[in-house]
């Protein structure tokens, strides 16, 4: 892993400096409050034996089906339960086509297949569908009626509508009966095009100033003619990234762009014949809170408002250099994008020296009508009824200068969300009316390792409500769709599609947990004492989204005291774990903070007391502290009363070579739902990281899913190697006392990084490197072992990186 690009900035030419963002984001959550590992009972899955690449989805809510395009297959799935397949149609590539494709040097079994890439509605029963067809794209009509999917067999030319290469990103959109597509139009994938296939087909000029090695991401339509005072036209917006032409740099820099065209554009008469007269583009700005090159747009979602002026684009960005593990979401208002295009200055090329061209702001007069503008009332008054009437001056200007000088700034001036760890891949956004009557934009964001994060930005504060693992085997989420009306999110990947409810309020089991979740879909219903989704006519419910204020919650039931017999010489485990990744757990002994003695070990599942003795008797209280804007929420999770006795209840393993047995304080259901850890030996649930399970083993406590990682931020490279070990050795053993490791035993408990006991930490996470503590996340001091994927190690004060690595090596040798 490359070191952070700090020294590198010296190499940058001056115009680049402003691209390097140094935003300081005060307090931000980048750790999801809760992590829900894979649980198939909450999800519905669809996959079919032998079929891969479930990459294209079309929601047909009125027909109650999700149309799903995969490799050589199209399905109609029940929107309520995608496991239920209503119809399927298979569209295989012919043997000749496959041979021909392989002959041209493509991989026969991978690339020379028919990947369904385009799926658009035409009318109530008919859709337009295109596939790559072994590097020879074709399109067809397909109908779904009477529970039957039928391809019409029209075999229309698919060039320019659908990519040749199934691995290439593309985007397309149906507006009325016109198909807009952004893809590559040739076999080699070297000629990009933004095309409207219609009566009068219009496309982009093949010039690098228009599109320069682009990666197309997203397209959508805004009905800007509606309520337009100046008779404006509807627009189609396109999001993509491309090699920048406007910066001097030792290598080509990639930038994110938004471009747009006018719906009624028919091209020019002499200049720009059958080419867009309205293609303009601008840079998208989304600054990461670390010095970095401009991040790359990966996906966009348009959150539509019935007043199109209030619609907002939400975009996911990831860094372009591999050294950073940050991802961000920025929102761009349609109005801001429009303003840049309608009123901003253009960039213009100037020749410096002989062959070198620099792009600078154009400060001269603009031709009339304004280049790139749609035909509006002002143009009509000049006698120009459509783009064919536009004067050459206007057209030549825009042909040579499609780039705006100004970048489009995000809605709030900075990202709505920044996360560190597995890269974010896809986004959908739901607008949810909460109990306070306000609308909140809830973001569902897919990750590269098969999770969906649910996040909200509360008045500038980033908050990840939860993350849910939707694929058992980590894999990137490549498609994400939302059905707001049905309340489901659909996530596609190469191996299948998963349906997840937008909320699962019942998973929050106490009022404070429900309120601290700050989930706009959920509130604590007082009459039924349940965390429930906001239905109609909820009489008395508690919700505090912005503040996370739990003061309206009823007093929790006092936690039952669990009596534990203390047997001198035994090891004792007191289960207790917080329900939230953002909470910190503290132990009190007889009302005083438990000292960090060599015999106390705090791990995610509770407290371990080694070699108990008489003076250890007392009242142990496990408390969690969780901060929200509305204040600190303290809560007692468990109380144990240790009293001396003669015979312990445990005693297992006493026969083994005289090592200390471990007693487990096991509480049963009477302990109440607020002591997750105390319902001992349950499977690894979301709130029970490191499910307690102990046994004795040669003087060590084995089976505790506790890894000792001693790492510092400076040692990122070494950490990668180390994590590899952690992944393969989920049962790392803790040897905190005795022998040569005496010195380690003296370090305070909070200095042990610990690995969470869920699938993601057991080596199934795709391509992970270590997460780091969140920037400015003051809720996460000390041990930080939770969240999606790899453990987030906090920096360890006393121990050097090499020390730690050596120690781990020791462990894996056991
Ligand atoms: C969903 O559909 C599958 C397949 O038809 C069926 O086995 C399952 O029971 C359904 N689930 C629900 C909740 O209806
Ligand atoms: C839908 O469009 C298809 C293809 O254009 C056409 O054949 C069919 O008649 C149309 N159906 C309806 C109900 O309009
Ligand atoms: C299709 O899925 C297979 C199996 O997961 C994967 O190896 C391949 O890369 C996928 N192809 C594309 C174009 O994503
Ligand atoms: C346990 O503690 C006793 C004294 O309290 C001590 O004598 C004994 O050596 C300890 N055992 C271990 C394994 O540390
Ligand atoms: C909550 O606990 C923290 C740390 O134990 C303490 O500093 C704070 O005063 C407590 N707050 C309340 C309201 O009890
Ligand atoms: C839990 O405790 C209750 C009452 O103390 C007892 O009746 C029950 O058998 C216990 N259950 C288990 C599984 O230990």
TrEMBL record:
GO molecular function annotations of the record: chemorepellent activity; semaphorin receptor binding
Transmembrane segments: 702-724
Short name of one Pfam family: Sema
Domain Sema: 33-502
Compartment(s): Membrane
Top-level taxon: Eukaryota
Gene Ontology biological process terms, A to Z: axon guidance; negative regulation of transcription by RNA polymerase II; neural crest cell migration; ossification involved in bone maturation; positive regulation of cell migration; semaphorin-plexin signaling pathway
RNA-binding among keywords: no
Name this protein carries in UniProt: Si:ch211-129c21.1
Species this protein is from: Gadus morhua
């Amino acid at each position: 892993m490359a070191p952070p690009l700090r020294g590198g900035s010296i190499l940058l030419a001056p115009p680049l400096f402003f691209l390097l963002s140094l935003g300081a984001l005060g307090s931000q959550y980048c750790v999801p409050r809760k992590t829900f590992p894979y649980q198939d009972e909450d999800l519905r899955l669809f996959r079919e034996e032998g079929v891969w690449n479930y990459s294209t989805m079309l929601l047909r809510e009125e027909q109650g089906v999700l149309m799903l395009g995969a490799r050589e297959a199209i399905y109609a799935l029940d929107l309520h339960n995608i496991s239920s397949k209503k119809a399927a149609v298979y569209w295989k590539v012919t043997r000749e086509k496959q041979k021909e494709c392989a002959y041209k040097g493509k991989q026969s079994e991978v690339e020379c297949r028919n990947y369904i890439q385009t799926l658009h509605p035409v009318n109530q029963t008919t859709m337009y569908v295109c596939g790559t067809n072994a590097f020879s794209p074709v399109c067809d009509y397909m109908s779904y009626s009477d529970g039957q999917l039928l391809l019409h067999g029209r075999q229309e030319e698919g060039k320019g509508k659908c990519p040749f290469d199934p691995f290439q990103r593309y985007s397309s959109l149906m507006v009325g009966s016109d198909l807009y597509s952004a893809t590559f139009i040739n076999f080699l994938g070297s000629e990009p095009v933004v095309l409207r296939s219609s009566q009068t087909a219009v496309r982009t000029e093949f010039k690098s100033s228009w599109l320069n090695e682009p990666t197309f991401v997203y397209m959508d339509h805004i009905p800007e003619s509606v309520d337009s005072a100046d008779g404006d036209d509807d627009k189609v917006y396109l999001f993509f990234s491309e090699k920048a032409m406007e910066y001097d740099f030792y290598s080509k820099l990639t930038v994110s762009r938004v471009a747009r065209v006018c719906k009624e554009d028919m091209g020019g008469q002499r200049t720009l014949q059958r080419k867009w007269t309205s293609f303009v583009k601008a840079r998208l700005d989304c600054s990461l809170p670390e010095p970095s090159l401009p991040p790359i747009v990966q996906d966009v979602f348009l959150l539509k408002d019935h007043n199109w002026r209030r619609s907002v684009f939400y975009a996911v960005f990831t860094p372009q250099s591999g050294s950073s593990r940050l991802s961000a979401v920025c929102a761009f208002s349609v109005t801001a994008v429009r303003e840049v295009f309608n009123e901003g200055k253009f960039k213009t090329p100037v020749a410096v020296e002989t062959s070198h061209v620099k792009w600078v702001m154009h400060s001269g007069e603009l031709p009339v009508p304004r280049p790139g503008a749609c035909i509006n009332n002002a143009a009509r008054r000049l006698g120009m009824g459509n783009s064919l009437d536009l004067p050459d001056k206007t057209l030549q200007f825009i042909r040579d200068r499609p780039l705006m000088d100004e970048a489009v700034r995000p809605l709030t001036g900075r990202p709505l969300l920044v996360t560190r760890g597995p890269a974010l891949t896809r986004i959908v956004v739901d607008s949810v009316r909460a109990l306070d009557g306000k609308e909140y934009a809830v973001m569902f964001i897919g990750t590269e390792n098969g999770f969906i994060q649910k996040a909200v930005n509360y008045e500038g504060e980033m908050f990840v409500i939860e993350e849910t693992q939707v694929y058992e085997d980590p894999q990137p989420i490549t498609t994400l769709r939302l059905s707001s009306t049905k309340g489901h999110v659909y996530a596609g990947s190469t191996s299948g599609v998963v349906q997840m409810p937008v909320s699962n309020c019942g998973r929050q089991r106490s009022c404070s947990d429900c309120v601290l979740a700050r989930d706009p879909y959920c509130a604590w219903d007082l009459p039924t004492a349940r965390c429930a989704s906001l239905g109609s006519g909820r009489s008395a419910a508690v919700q505090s989204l912005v503040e996370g204020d739990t003061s309206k919650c009823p007093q929790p039931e006092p936690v039952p005291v669990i009596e534990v017999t203390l047997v001198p010489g035994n090891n004792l485990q007191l289960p207790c774990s917080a329900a939230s990744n953002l909470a910190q757990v503290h132990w009190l002994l007889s009302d005083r903070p438990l000292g960090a003695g060599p015999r106390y070990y705090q791990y995610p599942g509770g407290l371990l007391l080694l070699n108990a003795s008489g003076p250890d008797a007392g009242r142990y209280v496990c408390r969690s502290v969780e901060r929200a804007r509305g204040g600190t929420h303290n809560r007692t999770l468990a109380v144990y009363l240790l009293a001396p006795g003669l015979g312990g209840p445990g005693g297992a393993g006493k026969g083994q070579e005289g090592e200390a047995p471990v007693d487990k304080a096991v509480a049963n259901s009477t302990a109440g739902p607020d002591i997750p850890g105390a319902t001992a030996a349950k499977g690894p649930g979301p709130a029970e990281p490191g499910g307690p399970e102990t046994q004795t083993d040669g003087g060590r406590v084995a089976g505790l899913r506790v890894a000792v990682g001693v790492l510092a931020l400076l040692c990122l490279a070494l950490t990668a190697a180390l994590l590899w070990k952690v992944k393969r050795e989920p049962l790392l053993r803790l040897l905190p006392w005795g022998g040569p490791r005496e010195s380690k035993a003296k370090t305070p408990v909070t200095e042990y990084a610990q690995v969470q006991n869920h699938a993601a930490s057991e080596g199934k996470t795709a391509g992970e490197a270590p997460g780091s503590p969140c920037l400015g996340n003051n809720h996460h001091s000390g041990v930080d072992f939770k969240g999606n994927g790899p453990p987030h190690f906090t920096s360890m004060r006393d121990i050097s990186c090499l020390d730690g690595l050596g120690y781990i090596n020791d462990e894996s040798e056991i």
